[in-house]
User: Fold these one by one.
Assistant:
Number 1:
Amino acid sequence: MYCHTDLSDKELIALVLKKDEQAFGLLYERYFPLLFIYANKIISDEEVVKDILQDVFVSLWSKTRLEINTSFSSYIYAAVRFQLFDYIDKQKVRQGYADSLQHFLDRGEYATDNYLLEKELQQQIEKEIMNLPPKMREIFILSRQEEKSYEEIARQSNVSLNTVRKQVSNALKIMRSKFTSLFFTFF
Amino acid sequence: MKTKNAKEILERYRQGACSEEEKSWVESWHLQQLKESQYTADPEDIKRIQGEVKNRIDSDIHYHIKRIRRKSQILKISAVAASLVLVLGISYLSRRQSNTTAIVHDTLQQADIQPGGNKAVLLSSDGSTIQLSEHSNTILVGANIRYADGPDLRQNLDTTSISAAPIFHTLQTPRTGAYNIVLADGTKVWLNAYSSLKFPSRFDSKERVVELLGEAYFEVAHNKKQPFKVRSKEQTVEVLGTHFNISAYASEPTVTTLLEGAVKVNRMANNSSVLLKPGQQSTIKEDTKQIQLAHINTEHAVAWKNGYFNFDNETLPSILNKIERWYDVEFTYEKTPSAKTYIGAVSRSRNLSAVLRALEAAADVKFKRTGRKIVVIS
């Protein structure tokens, strides 16, 4: 069994569904910074943002089943987005946001491809990774990079994904202990 | 061209009831908002807030608190800064409102009201009344009755002689009092405020019977040959060896919560009964024929024994009833209180003013206190 930090989002979620607190904490570490910035860009009230993030994660923890068709990141970005719109709708700020949307619609310059839109939204949320301090950044990037490259390696060398993960995990452990800072700035 | 109504579209989007086209409009706008935002984050802030929110999440997770949306509002009892901290060191649920509600200052400078403590009296069938010491919190029933940390309270109960009938005692707590007792068979009982437990100096007959008025938590000693029964105004609970809590205050529903083991709750009025499994709670209300059963978080039901109040989806009057007993105060309502319910927890060792502040913030009410009478202004 390898260390939790090497697990993909999908694997962590599977553990969270079994009430693994460590896995839950790791997912939280991976996504909190980005979600925090995302929420703050739409709602400028820090207390509300904190409540929203708390709600989203507590709700995630209490799930006994979770079917994600796309990726965990789209799921969690959508969960936060729902909370943002929920807040906008209920509070006194509703009018301000409605006016803004009205103005936008009247100008008529919107895209209509939902798939592309989702990709763009994801990009806007994730580009903030570059504005995060190194340690926070690497927690997120590492999880992305690893999954993609493992799949490629597995395909190319005709080996199972698990084997690749295990081997890389062992290698990473050795590397990290010797070359910590060097290794991470490589990304 | 059909005019688009932004407000309606937003509403439909939120409900998930808009068309694919409308969805793309809203999300394009959302995307633009993101692009145009001037917000920049301070990494130190992120780190700090990440920690704060994680603490709150951990509290929520460990107490399995479920939020229930009532009339599209969730209100929690606030933890006013760090001042309301659990005895167990877990921080409380956060406040929803971003403004702090003003503390109501009475025109007279009144001394703050202290929380309850170890107060009780022991009344006995032979006529004696003993005020129990506040320095101890537990008494043990054996050949004598003594405090857990040593000194005897009552001597010569003569439990060795079976020809003499056992003496009946009543452990009684006032408002603001709580006390613990270990009965002659080893059963442990935590008695809450404004309650009384009647018990014999020894359990002689084929059943072990005690009587309860108010609230107590029991950890019953195993004895297959001698079933343990707790009688209260509306029910009798029969147990073998278990951990359970009974709340049987006058003019409130009788609630029995089972943590471990098995109990049978027998309703005396119509002789109906239910068998409780761990995690289950029975409620007997005067106006309801059947005994109601529910699965609940048992930690909440016994929170009082662990040093804090836990409000699990309770109305304000229900919450204030508990506060009344622990602080010996009386609440009256300016207007009929709403049916809104609240979730939260507050330490039982805080002074009244701290508790009232928290409630004011969470329930959007104001309290005006004169001595021990408090008016609730909503």
Number 2:
Amino acid sequence: MRLVFEGGNRTYEIELIQSGDSYRFVIGDRGLDLERVHAGGGRLDLLLEGTPLTAFVSRDGAKRWVTVNGRTYQLTKSSGARRGGAATGGQNTLLAPMPGQVLAVNVEVGDQVSTGQTLLLLEAMKMEIRVQAPRDGVVKRLRVAQGQTVEREQVLLEIGD
Amino acid sequence: MFSKVLIANRGEIALRVMRACRELGIQTVAVYSEADANALHVRQADQAVWIGPSAPRESYLNSEKIISAAKASGAEAVHPGYGFLSENADFAEAVESAGLTFIGPPPAAIRAMGDKAESKVRMQAAGVPTVPGMQGLEAVAEFERAAAQIGFPVLIKAAAGGGGKGMRIVWDEHDLPEDLDAARREALNAFGDERLLVEKYLPKAHHIEFQVFGDQHGHLVHLFERECSVQRRHQKIIEETPSPIITPVLRERMGAAALAAAGAVGYTNAGTVEFILDPDSLDFYFLEMNTRLQVEHPITELVVGLDLVHWQLRVAAGQAFPYQQGQLSQRGHAIECRLYAEDPAAGFLPSTGDLLQFSLPRGPGIRLDSGVTSGSQVGHFYDPLLAKLIVQAEDRPAAIQRMQTALHEGVIHGLTSNLDFLQDVLSHPDFLAGNVTTSWVERTFENWSQPEVAPEALLAAALADLLPASASTNENQPESTAPDPFNPWTEANGFRLGGG
């Protein structure tokens, strides 16, 4: 079984081969043998190359949270297809850095803005965050209004030339 | 003693206070907003009253609604917790005018200390050393003149409150106008008061605070210090006691200053006098007094051996605090780590989500004060504090080791937390050496990021995908917005694969 996960701006391709009671796990040129599995309640107890390993796994849609050896990783399961289409999160598109409420919108479509200028103010958990222009340009699109609730990584506005 | 107390708060502190009430045979009344309808504190209380929509100003900051809830439920006293209305003198006064007891200091003491400008003047009069600064300024130009006179960097802060809200470090006069604007808005939002003051900012200082405790019979003691220098955004993330840099002589001097500060305003009940300490000269300055129970009170409880919330309730009911200063001592070492829903790799921005798994270990010397559990929803309306993990051991190295081991066993899934970050802080040589100042976190961990994904993590993710979902993972409904995101826990019955 071939699986692709994305995490920390990298893509990982994994091959998991079941043979009888054990599994072989291949990533890149590395192969690891898994011998025994107990699974339940979001917890996996494994023997990896003969050494006990405990992992905690949760999922929400394509998202995976995995904790092993005291570290938690966030992964996204992917179909493996290259991500194409409209670019998001680039220099031209400003995304909400956190979920919260739009406190103020300081610009309008068509406004000329310069690097570092505060375009929007967001508030979450009583904290105020300035969303600043990453470059000089013109506000092409405004996707949010004052008072609106936004999710993390929701598009706020677009800057063009 | 009271027979019923209303807790005007939410999250872990509401649960902490309820536990103390239950131990003393007191009935509890919770208040809650729309967003908290399913919150733990609502379920734990004997009675719960809905007080309004999710926005704090319409619920947890609405004193009228809280006082009506107290009256309607037959509570005799109100415990404010920390944050929200806990340091609002008008609220404390309104509680008392309504014939109820406010579990905290007298409103006059809150008012005197709550006004950071006024308190500074009073502290100077009481002989307590204070930070050079200026107050009573309004126009931007006045602030500019004052800042230039004091010398950059300066700290602007809300005259009305603490907790890092409405607080900005300004390194350069160029940033002053915009920072003033933002601080004013934050201050107005958090405290309903936009007055600001400006002070000299000491980038290399320890934050050391003293717990004080007084009864209504004129007896006031201090319960030693807490070292709270591990901060981000002026908010503490790790606290410990004893402080690794305080000597017995300095402890005595600072303790005496703390008592002078509290005594000057006729303080009773639990309070904290905060100082900043220059580690080179060992000069210390009064920063502010928090006229309430502090988030980090458990480390004092563990080292001094007193239950501060019990005593808050007892003293508010008129009982005498029985311990003299000479009878109190520190035993062993305690550390608290604050578990926050935030992303240390992205400027500590708050994160939200449904907690798919939330598990922290219990064991000898380990205490967990938590406001959430697996399945809790963490929204954007309130403070991102999830829980506090507190350990106690014989000495500092043993306490650090105990905390490290406990954090290592923690699992928080469903949102981004600072669990891994805390482990890196605790294992840093500067922290181990006790050599941490208030700007250390931001300086040392500016480019902190998660390590590359470990092969073991990929393997576990892959294997979990191969196994039946209910057995191997804790799964949320795909693309679901259902309020109760999961129940596969109920089917977790040790599904087993392979030989053995």
